[in-house]
């Protein structure tokens, strides 16, 4: 295992020091790894979580121990007023927001076509689409007020490219919405010097797959990956740091960055 797989990598991005990062779903998996990496780079992290309070505390402690600052903001992002409240709390804590990471998301449950219900479709879209739209609105308004630009990083998925695995079509389509909207928001917000990009993970070993995928399903996915292994959350971190950094990606907007071991090459 190399250092980025095991999470020991220290990726040093000087212009992130003191930057304020609001990250949704920062308690576990990819969001937690990104939050820790922002902390290691001296950023101030406003970390949203919902159910995983103890895990969020551990991420926050890690950020503080490594030289960053952290504030925890509990909240179910699917609640219509959550984005406005979480945005306001981040600004109250740190005075501004420089980077938004729209990471919270989930498959909800694997559901074949003949079992679709309005309740199921709403649940997938509420979590993977509608709350992201609200955060884009509320945080871009805040960034515009600040007048110094910003970076918004959405989280799409390889599922957006291939339509999803068994029972995950609505989730895949929701992530396709995010990829398409990322390009549109990038064009609309460029006048405010707000860059909008997305990270599109492949199959990454997080609580997501513990919840939604069997060992057989994971083995079948792995067989389609040229690197012949599942990725780690830490291996997604570089993409977030790169897209957050004005110094590294100041001329990059509207891009979907694939992190997938070669599983899909657009
Ligand atoms: P995890 O389940 O580890 O993380 C999901 C995060 O989202 C948790 O922090 C969770 O918080 C948060 N979350 C879920 N629902 C809500 C909610 N209603 N309100 C606030 N926060 C919420 O999975 P991953 O790290 O794998 O997923 C992160 C992102 O990556 C998601 O958008 C996912 O769709 C995407 N993705 C993952 C892939 C993978 O293979 N793992 C592949 C492609 C995309 P809490 O536990 O505190 O409720």
TrEMBL record:
Name the keywords, alphabetized. Answer: Oxidoreductase
Q: Which SMART domains match?
A: PKS_KR (SM00822)
Output the Gene3D superfamilies linked to this UniProt entry.
NAD(P)-binding Rossmann-like Domain
Could you confirm whether the keyword Oxidoreductase appears in this record? yes
Q: Where is the Ketoreductase domain?
A: 19-210
Cited InterPro entries: KR_dom (IPR057326), NAD(P)-bd_dom_sf (IPR036291), SDR_fam (IPR002347)
**What one GO molecular function would you report for this record?**
oxidoreductase activity
Recorded family membership:
Belongs to the short-chain dehydrogenases/reductases (SDR) family.
Listed name of the protein: SDR family oxidoreductase
- Which species does this protein come from? Microvirga aerilata
The upper taxonomy is: Bacteria, Pseudomonadati, Pseudomonadota, Alphaproteobacteria, Hyphomicrobiales
